[in-house]
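All the exercises in this workshop are built on plain-text protein records. A record pairs a protein's sequence with a compact description of its fold. Read left to right, the backbone structure tokens trace the chain's path through space. Once this layout is familiar, the rest of the handout is easier to follow. Here is such a record, shown just as it appears in the course material:
>
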Amino acid sequence: MENIIYKECVVIGAGITGLAAARWLKKYKIDFVVLEKSSDIGGLWRYTDDEYGVMDFTHINVSKYNYCFSDHSFPENTTDYPHHSEMFKYIKSYSEKFQLREKIKFKTVVQKVEEINETFQKLETEKNFETIKNFEKLWKITAFDLEKKDEIIFVTPYVSIASGHHSTPIEAKFEGQENFSGKIFHSVKFKSAAKNNMINSRVLIVGIGNSAVDAAVNLVNEGKCSKVVISSRSGAWIIPNYISGYATDLYACRSFLNIPWKIATNVMEMAIKFVYGHPNKYKLNPKMRALQTQPTVSPTLIHHIQRKHITIKPNIKNIDKNTVEFENGEKEDFDVIILCTGYKIDLNYLSDDIQNKVFFDENKNSLNLFKQVFHPKIGKSLAFLGFIQPSSGGLITVSEMQARWHASLMLNQSHLPTEDKMNEIIIADMEKSKKRFYKSNRHTIQQDPILYNDDIGQFFGAKPDPLKNFSLIWHFLFSSCGPAQWRLNGPDSDNQAYLQVKKVPVTDMMKIFSFVLFLIMFFFIIQIYKHPIIFLIAIGSVLFYKYFLKTNFEKI
């Protein structure tokens, strides 16, 4: 037993999600350690020339108002969409503010996470944890210290997995690819046109997500490439960084997100077409509606398509030496192919029995988790933090809320539903997601952060209460409000949260929309007052259709 290190919680990964977990564990005086395989914090936001991480020119594509921690804002003079260097500086300042670095064990690779039921009683009597009481399970984590070349064993009642879902690149395969005479590589290895020695090259980019679009624009601007082509199987709606002078994610508010998505997507598409025109005009040819997919945000792609610096092609049919044939029969020659084909979730350090529970299928794209965090059979002892793909905001707010939820469960301040209830909710959430999002490997973990955070906030009392925050009701409806909104009431309430919510801009369009909505409501109230009988008949007709006619037609 002397070679075992006991901790009340072990966090895997020191990216933004792992740091959020560490901040709240430290706040509640839970004894923990963060295991990080690299030499520094920040995850993909730590730029290096030759390792996993962002590209040299990357800016965040969610504004600083919605991509930040609840109690640590960006400096006032920060641009709306900070460069990765500013983002990393911000993450470091968060770590320093809460003195998190001292709790991180760097250059430590997690090799295996497994449950240790057989020694539960023995370990329970041999080790008393100071803060955590009445735990349900114990976990054994086998890790390897890269500096000391030594194996370490951790035993803990709680594990927070924060290693992220952008872990293993997906490398698409095409007929004849092995005979390509140029270079083929995944975008994880692309840093910039200059750093990758691609000046004046003929480049084909496969995929049309944010990384693909950013790379294409860089190849034009910095690389002066003679040819830049984007090949896309499903097409895309390109969303501008700004609409009417406001960062686009500021329009993601409860009044918009709670509109039936088919109506909301029509509104969004009208806004996009007002700025850029119809995407088919640029051969983007999206196969899905605008709100059925993760947004591809770019202020300059359309500009370059208009000037023929970048062209759009359909999916690749085959490759012959340096010639690529597309599905429309067109052929073009290239020197380089960059695969911007995304990532798959890789949790190979989990024991086989845990992986079999957590993943729905062999492809390991879909997670069998309650609210994307807990497996019903395993319970609160193992949390998957940050395994969300935000569709209308940033991951930081989600990761922080999940970390707070897990901490409250550790301290028995809140409780999960029963196993049966969690399974029931998982199925309902999956059905809802299938109806909303385009069928693709990209969209198995898609969520709208505001609605999602409100949802999980209910489980530990952090959902904003309009009655307790009456003066902010207008902001709750028509502003994105930022992460501080989930610190207004309940556990961890912060007296600065009100001011932080007020600082988040409300767009002019939402101000107009709120005024029009008020006029419509006022008109209906007047009509109800004048003609109550007509109103009662109308309500009765709706209820009759909904609960009688519709039910009987469905039976037929």
